[in-house]
Specification:
169 residues; Immunoglobulin-like; 1 helix
Length: 169
């Protein structure tokens, strides 16, 4: 008897099913497999300040010596995080030759997150150390500004952009 079209299709379908089951069975027999995973951790350096604008006003003078009384502000809190080693936090002003005296210092460096440098004078636009010894840590400190003027400086105002940076030591 000659095979019919139905018999031929049924035979082809059986052959395809057996082939599929055989390949699934081969795959199912493998107990484990490997995959290569490459993980790269890049250096992370983030810094921010909670108070983006500070105003200092010198409006009093000492009667004893006639010099203006310095103005201070400790409202800013600087926060940082780094997973790098041997870092420091620097401070710089955009003013290359300020008329009035501006000083800045880091206070209460938290979590053993570095060592506060001595108070610095922002007398030009060069970078100065604020916190040193920063390695693999998140930290914070208060920022204290002191502004002073001499009688000979007269009156006036200046605006400064103060930049804090995490950088290598």
């Amino acid at each position: 008897m000659k095979p019919t079209m139905k018999d031929m299709m049924t035979g082809s379908l059986r052959a395809m099913m057996l082939s599929f089951l055989f390949s699934v069975r081969l795959l199912g027999q493998q107990a484990s497999t490997d995959q290569v995973l490459t993980l790269q951790v890049l250096e992370i350096n983030k810094i921010g300040i909670n108070n983006n604008a500070v105003a200092l006003i010198i409006d009093q003078a000492s009667l004893e010596d006639g010099t203006p009384v310095p103005a201070t502000n400790e409202d800013g809190v600087l926060v940082w995080i780094t997973n790098g080693d041997n870092k420091k936090i620097t401070v710089a002003s955009n003013n290359p030759s300020p008329r009035f005296l501006i000083k800045v210092v880091a206070l209460d460096v938290a979590n053993s997150a570095g060592v506060a440098a001595p108070e610095v004078i922002l007398s030009d636009n060069t970078t100065k150390d604020l916190v040193t010894g920063v390695s693999r840590v998140s930290g914070r400190c208060k920022i204290k500004y002191t502004a002073a003027a001499k009688i000979s400086d007269g009156i006036g105002s200046e605006t400064y952009i103060i930049t804090f940076t995490i950088t290598g030591s």
